[in-house]
Amino acid sequence: MSLLSFFKQKHTEVPQPRIEDWPLTYRQDGLWTIHNADFMTEPKFASAYARAVQAEKDHNIQWRIHILTWAATNAMKIPGDFVECGVNRGAASSAIMTYVGWNANRGARTYYLMDTFQGLVPELVNDEERAIGRLDMFEDAYPECYEQTKKNFDEFDDVVMIRGPIPDTLPQNKTQHIAFMHIDMNCAAPETAAMRYFWPKVQRGGIVVLDDYAYHGYQPQKDAMDALGREIGFMVASLPTGQGLIVKSS
Ligand SMILES: C[S@@+](CC[C@H](N)C(=O)[O-])C[C@H]1O[C@@H](n2cnc3c(N)ncnc32)[C@H](O)[C@@H]1O
Question: What is the number of the ligand 1 atom nearest to the C-alpha of 187?
Answer without folding.
Answer: 16
